[in-house]
Amino acid sequence: MTKEEEEEKLELPKVLRAKKKELSEWYHQILFLADIVDIRYNLKGMNVWKNYGYETMLNLKRYWDYVFKKNGLKELYFPQIVPIEYCEQNPEWWSGFKEQGFKVIAGEKDEIQGALRPTGEAAMYPMYAMWIKTFRDLPLRAYETVSSFRYETRHTRPLIRDREITLWHEIHTVHATKEDCLKEAQNHIEYYKQLWDFVAVHPVIVDKPGWELFPGAIGGIEFYNITPDGKAMENGSVNILGQAYAKKFNIKFKDKEGKENIGWQVCTGNGARLLAAALIQHGDDKGLVLPPNIAPYQVVVVPILFEKEKEIIMKNVEKLKEMFENAGIRVLLDDREETPGRKFYDWEIKGVPLRAEIGPEDIKKNQVVIVKRNDGKKIAIKKELFISEANSLLKTIQEELLKKSQKETAERIGYADSLKKMEELLEKGKCVKINWCKKGECYDRVKAVKEGAEIFGSDYYEKKKGRCIACDEETDNLAYVAKTY
């Protein structure tokens, strides 16, 4: 598609596509219409965050900063340019990113100075090796939030598959023992559960198949969200690296007896895909439905103006805005020269959780009319109760969105005990649970059933006695099959 065609596609539609029928088109439209990102920057997979989208994303980042720091993780920053010699310290890691790596050239001879970081290991671990000398330097528990760069050759999708992965956090820890390493990984799972609750999306948590692990890693847990069309979006991973990377990057320490030991490591990462999951899960045919936790404005105040009462109405809405601000609620007063209907439409597109309306009749009745974005319910509230009721409604909306996500995620997943049944469910747009023995040849048989569908992991918590769907061997392992992003 040419740039001109892309611009036309983005700017001309006046009505959103139906989300259920045309999810991909809906998603691209809503990112543009709701001022989340603009994809017309003339480099593929590199997008411009618009203010509304960026503030939404920053609310999410502020929360992970809070969760991480509350639990003792220290925030660091490393340069974006990674020396090639750092990359080459782990040849297996570098071979996986060499073709996707952006090279940085400078000087009269255009010499390669390094690579733009595809992930953080090669930038961080040589420094960790310098910092860690004895057991007293452990554990080292840190994270950073930066951009990562990968020259994606596949179809890019804003916030889902980009060449510049913006607002991406990585936790990298080093421990003295395997036990401490495994405990840390469990902590990271719990941190991520808090992030998912914060965006009101219910994830699927899986063990990675062995061949999907980082080279030399001893385990890996991934989070996925299941989209309305039954596809699985990888959305965060906890990687138990063991000692593999510490050996490559020479991360060693002396114990109490002066004996040299190799560190044990965990790395965990995610970013804007969490926001993408929330936008896709909660949005509807009218636009976004933002969880109150991440909405730039939790309430938009819309005055219903008539010329005779204009002055008194504006005094009332200004006072209401001040009350919200004093209560710590993020609020916007929409005093543009537009009709109320146009304002309602604009804020429905942007998914503001609550809309507060005040007109002449409301002033007479000493009330405010509030409209919930997630279900459209209108509620008349006396002004003296409004702040407490608004706070209560924001909490209710957050809870309702999470419960809805839990219900819909469960509905998007079916169970199959035969390859034929699995194929039927996949044809219906379902994600499918199956019993699987974890053998590679059975994985291949499952993958061959439906083009694009594959096993993306085994349920981290649930077990179910049965027989492998491919070889009939007894197993209690439950795996998920779906098309993935």
Question: What topology emerges from the helices and strands here?
Answer:
Elements: H1 3-11, H2 23-33, E1 37-38, E2 48-49, H3 51-70, E3 74-75, E4 81-82, H4 84-87, H5 91-97, E5 103-106, E6 111-116, H6 121-131, E7 140-149, E8 164-175, H7 178-198, E9 204-207, E10 219-226, E11 232-242, H8 244-249, E12 252-254, E13 260-262, E14 264-270, H9 273-282, E15 299-303, H10 310-326, E16 331-333, H11 340-350, E17 354-358, H12 360-364, E18 367-372, E19 378-382, H13 386-411, E20 413-415, H14 419-427, E21 431-435, H15 440-447, E22 453-467, E23 474-483
Parallel strand pairs: 3-7, 15-16, 15-17, 20-21
Antiparallel strand pairs: 1-2, 4-6, 5-6, 7-8, 8-14, 9-10, 9-22, 10-11, 11-14, 12-13, 17-18, 18-19, 21-23, 22-23
Organism: Candidatus Woesebacteria bacterium RBG_13_36_22
Subunit structure: Homodimer.
GO biological process, one term: prolyl-tRNA aminoacylation
Structure description:
By secondary structure, this protein is α+β, with helices and mostly antiparallel strands. It folds into 3 domains: 3-282, 2-Layer Sandwich (BirA Bifunctional Protein, domain 2); 299-393, Rossmann fold; 414-483, 2-Layer Sandwich (Translation Initiation Factor IF3). The chain is built from 15 helices and 23 strands. It has helices spanning 3-11, 23-33, 51-70, 84-87, 91-97, 121-131, 178-198, 244-249, 273-282, 310-326, 340-350, 360-364, 386-411, 419-427, 440-447, and strands at 37-38, 48-49, 74-75, 81-82, 103-106, 111-116, 140-149, 164-175, 204-207, 219-226, 232-242, 252-254, 260-262, 264-270, 299-303, 331-333, 354-358, 367-372, 378-382, 413-415, 431-435, 453-467, 474-483. Strands 3-7-8-14-11-10-9-22-23-21-20 form an 11-stranded mixed sheet, with helices on both faces. Helix 3 (51-70) packs antiparallel against helix 7. The protein is globular, with a radius of gyration of 25 Å. Mean pLDDT is 95; it is low at 1-12.
